Amino acid sequence: MIVKGIRYLKKDINKYPFNIDLIKNFEELILDKPITFIVGENASGKSTLIEGIACSLELPTVGKESVRYDKTLVEARKLAKQLRIDKRSKGGHGFFMRSDDFINFCRRQRETVVELNADLNELEKEFEGKSDYAKMLMRGPLVSSINQLENRYDGYLDTLSHGESFLTLFKSRLVPNGIYILDEPEVALSPQNQYSLMALIIDSIKEGSQFIIATHSPIIQALPYSNIYEVSNGFLKKMDYEDLENVKFYKSFLENHERYVAYLEE
User: Fold this and answer.
1) How many domains does the chain have?
2) How far apart are CA 61 and CA 100, in angstroms?
3) Are 239 and 40 in contact (CB under 8 A)?
4) Residue 190 and residue 187: Cα distance in Å, rounded?
5) Is 214 inside a domain boundary?
6) What is the pLDDT of residues 40-75, one digit of tens each?
7) Whole-number Å distance between alpha carbons of 73 and 170
8) 133 and 219, same structural domain?
9) Quick check: is 252 in a domain?
10) Which residues span the domain enclosing 232?
11) Per 3-state DSSP, what percentage of the chain is helix, strand, and coil (rounded to 5)?
12) What pTM, to 2 d.p., does this model score?
């Protein structure tokens, strides 16, 4: 395990994000398994908490700026200053991924390659009439940058389906002994691709990695080697998979979907 615990040094501050019930009541989170789930309804505070943890760990984001400068994480950085991370090892390479940031990353990859090609064309004009050796030296860094972007993801991410590009990006960024914080990764994925993501996560934890995941997906929540904490009435409560509210609802709906649909028409 890379991180074995997170403690909150409480301060009597009655403004966001410290006035969220989950944050006010939060004391400590023990991370004694490779995967930690934080689940709950929208606006329960789970995303705020994991954003604070990501900022405290100073993990790079995917598709946005560093957590130190990302304007959407201003409040999370305030929370991070009150969190104490108990590390067991010096590992910690990894990333923080939000579903919206993933979409921005795909667009930015394409824009960066277009900009590099434009720079290359400008330099070609400047070096017109120069020796082949001079042109080779000029082209080298730009061509190398373009090839790295294209080869790392086997082409452009935005030419793949949403799910395929997510999995390609995710797989390319995984390193052994990494720590990864994911906020609702299921947004980009079909049920089948959620299962593929689970396989990547299992392979990664076998290489010493650790995950903290906020999710509504009962598929992803079924991952083994995990603890599940559900936000209930402003508190984190450790739960068994079968007792999760969303799991019980999904099961009930799938077993009685005709009754649920008929109720909507009454």
Assistant:
1) 2
2) 11
3) no
4) 8
5) yes
6) 988 899 999 999 999 999 888 875 556 777 888 899
7) 22
8) no
9) yes
10) 3-102+177-264
11) 50, 20, 30
12) 0.78
